[in-house]
Amino acid sequence: MFQKIKTPLLLLLISETLLILLFPWSLVFEPTLAAGGDTPSHFIAAVAMNRSLFAFFSPVTWIHGAYAGFPLFLQYFPLPFALMALISKAVSLQVAFKLVTLLGIIPLPAAVYLCLRYLGYRQNIPAIGALLSLPFLLMTDNKIFGGNICSTLAGEFAFSISFILYIIFTGKLYADISRGKSPLGSSAIEALTALSHGYPLLQSIMGSFYFILWGRNLRNIFKLHAAAAGLVAFWLLPLLWRMPWNTTYSYCWHFESWKEIAPPLLWPSFAGTLILGGSSIHKLFWPERRFSFVFKTPIDCPELYLLWQFGVALLGFSLASFAGLVDMRFLPFAQIMLVLMGAVGWGRLISGLPRPNFWLAGFCAGVVAIALTRAAVVDSWIQWNYSGMESKPLWNSYLRVNDYLSGDQNSPRVVYEHNDITNDTGSIRAFELLPYYSGRSTLEGLYMQSSLNSPFIFYIQSELSKSPSAPFPQYYFSRPDPDRAAKRLALFNVSQVIAVSDDISNTLDSSPFYELRMSFPPFRIYRLRRSGDSYVEPLKFRPLRIPSKNWKKVQFEWFRRSSLSVPLVVASEGSPGEFWKNLQAYDGDPEHIPEVPVQISQKIRANAVLGDSRITIDTSEPGHPLWIKVSYHPDWRITEGAGELYLASPAFMLLVPKTSRVVLTFDTGSGVYLWGKILFFITVLVLIFKALLARLPHVRHIRILPGLTRYNPIRSSKIGINAWLFAAFALIAAITLGSISTRNHHDPVLLYYLATGKFEKIEGIKSGPDGSASEDSPAIAQSPETLSVLDLLDEGIAKFGRSSMLDFFMLYKASVMSKMKKWDQLRPILEDFLKKNPDNRINAEGLTLLGEASLKMNQTVDAERFFRQALSSWPEDNSIKQAGLHLAEILGCDTIFETARGLLASGKYIEAHNIYRALSLSEDKKIADKGLASLACCSFYMNRWQEASDLFTQWPADNSDAPQSARVQADLRQCRTIIDKNIEWMTGANPQSASPARHGLIVRFLDWAAQILPWHADRVNQKQYGEQVLSDEQQG
């Protein structure tokens, strides 16, 4: 049987078989919810699509479960979830979810094979391309760029599915144009690409411009994109029309290693590309017939087409930040083009060698061996994902939290601390599934661009998390401060907070705004003492009016700095309605907003009931404005009753009802949604008509392009290069190089790393991105390069004054100035910054630097004040410890110990903990031992059992003869008892977990072979490495 299979098909079959055998299919078909990174959070969308599958051509629906409500599938891509809903008719939705994620992995070798076939390559080149796609899939150097297995398992399966469609589209379009066929057949593939993800669509459009440079194709390319746009108009038109009502997300990737761009697993493809480049240059300059640089002179062209695709991918990368996009998403297109060009290069080289089949077999074996060097790491990701959340260490605690919080979408919202510990539930984003498991709404979610409230919600997250995600670099975020967060939580109708870490729990314990209700270690559930219980609030004070221009920035400053009592209504001159005309204009000062009470005759009763894409509001006082705590969107309509609806702070709705009952409906049946559906059906009818017309005998030989018919196709070698194409390549190269050379100055993160990297070179050391510089260096103050570092930091402060990176620019500048001994200039700058930004994230570091600068200037009283303030700061870090040591030098250790004991006795555990932590680092052993023992006791009182246990273990080791040893041993035993009980609680007597992890056949074979081969130790190390980094990398 195998003798009848041709070599290319056999190699393709081997590629797909290896890929299929990499996965443990028994785990895939278990009805568990896939874990890992963003993956489980997508399940909410799958559930929503499953409920409304037959309304696919009107997929947008309102979801109340996250971001104070948002329109699902308006800013995200519905096709993968529609496939899940369809497959779920045969299997469970959880299994369908897993199977669709695999659609972004398994078909990739076949897609590469098909693309190369479409490009006109025969013999073994398509099969070599399929094999070279295996290293691309298994590379682990860039785990969140997209397209490979790790990226797909991290939650980017929609991108991966669209990526595969893009590869097929690239080849199909070339085949259509080169053979003189109408490219309308490719429109369907482009439409499916668009419905799966946006970045492959952008790459497809930019890549198709190659054919426009050959002027006769302009009309066909226009038809191609017009037909594709018409086929997805029911979704694309509302997306484009409502683009101003989303939250822009732009991100520039900071490369720490060149291996992120050119991973070792892609080196065979790089080598093949170099071989192809060498042979192409030889053909260009030493051909049998000289190449003539005149317009429309043909030359061998599939390679140029691939090179064009490579070039526009790099162009997209370089321009992404200017367009508000994520630049790294364009790199997989460049990498897959290297795979395709590498296949051509190796195929031509091998075909020219004696005994080509022998060399082909050796080459293929080498490629497979290279790919499988990462099999152990990738397998650990596969195990983590497809064994499901139900098998994870914290599943039982997580399930109990959801059971305790059970309610519905009309219950008050729940928020949670963002912490890496949560990753042991299966994903750091596990609590985004609260709407599914508990029925309750939360604030955070996956599709953060879909809601206007996203920046405000992540600001709240930063107030409740020691390590917030802070995904929007263009917005400022706070340091942890649960007390300040309380009024913002009440504004968003939040009643409960899930704390994960000891740090946040200790702060909530000591706060008057929260009370502990339940603990399921490591999770603790607190109730907000002054929370509301309704999604509608009658206004107490008259709102102010702001224009629509730059309203997002104005509202964000209002959210950061105001009392939150007086909302700002967005209404420009000429806006519909009457209510806004009587409102006073906002003067731009959020800290001094006048509170003018609204006159009411009696207590107003108002109630809101949230339904599916519907809100029903009842009020006892028509005409009195109501603050609806649901995200504003222009597609909310008043469908029952009467009133006026406005966008109000922060991005909620303000309703001025004219009747006692008003019903709001999220309308997707009229307006731009209706026009999109009409355009879709018109496009379908036109395409059907053209297909029927083409079958008629008298039009079958109609010419598609001038001079061409279906029976006189133009071959691939005739789609030629011309001077316009050369000019286009040169322009792409110039723009790309120019944009990349200035890239660091257009993004706050990159500019920060540019400045810190330059300063590190001056110092000759490597320091981390925590904003602190190293010890004094005599050469720093005299170095002219240091002034250029300050210039870069000043540029960052000036350009990105509202960015989340502002704190780090200022801290690093202060640190550099301190090393330059410019203490007199440092102090006023830093004091002014801390005063103007009380929510800054560098408070402790800044106060410590101010104290040190004051000491240097012999201002001891001020230094003591700054160090005391630093010791009261939170969360703790090295600067707080340094402040404690400085204060001990000023006041004496006995005084500091007395201060700490007083704080501990009054319940101010965090401040006492900071002091004891600093004293435990003293160079005086007596002081350090006393500080360590006190720190252990303080940790014990703060319920930090593991920390206390470690400290109690450390202290007796150095002080076995001390009289306190017996007491310490008793406390240690109590800590360990509590820790053991917590572990027993988390695992549970009957853990609801999936069956033990299982490996795919490939990994099982490698494990067996490892027992007898000398590289067994290396493979074990690889596997251990994969398991070690898994919890961190899955968060991508």
The largest β sheet comes out as: 7 strands, mixed
Mean pLDDT figure: 85
What is the domain tally? Answer: 3
Tell me the strand percentage band.
5-15%
Portion in helices: 40-55%
Keywords:
alpha+beta, Serine Threonine Protein Phosphatase 5, Tetratricopeptide repeat, 7-stranded mixed sheet, 4-stranded mixed sheet, 17 strands, 8% strand, globular
Report what the structure shows.
- It is globular, with a radius of gyration of 32 Å.
- Helix 3 crosses helix 4 (79-87), helix 27 packs antiparallel against helix 29 (784-799) and helix 37 (925-941) packs antiparallel against helix 38 (945-958).
- It has 41 helices and 17 strands.
- The strands form four sheets. The protein has a seven-stranded mixed beta sheet, covered by helices on one side. Strands 3-4-6-5 form a four-stranded mixed beta sheet. The chain has a four-stranded antiparallel beta sheet with strand order 11-12-17-14, with no helix packed on it.
- Residues 289-300, 700-720, 766-775, 989-995 and 1015-1036 have low confidence and may be disordered.
- Strand 5 (514-520) and strand 6 form a beta hairpin.
- The protein has 1036 residues and is an alpha+beta fold.
- It has three domains: 1-30 and 107-391 and 670-742, no CATH class; 536-666, Chondroitinase Ac, Chain A, domain 3; 743-987, Serine Threonine Protein Phosphatase 5, Tetratricopeptide repeat.
- Helices cover 53% and strands 8% of the residues.
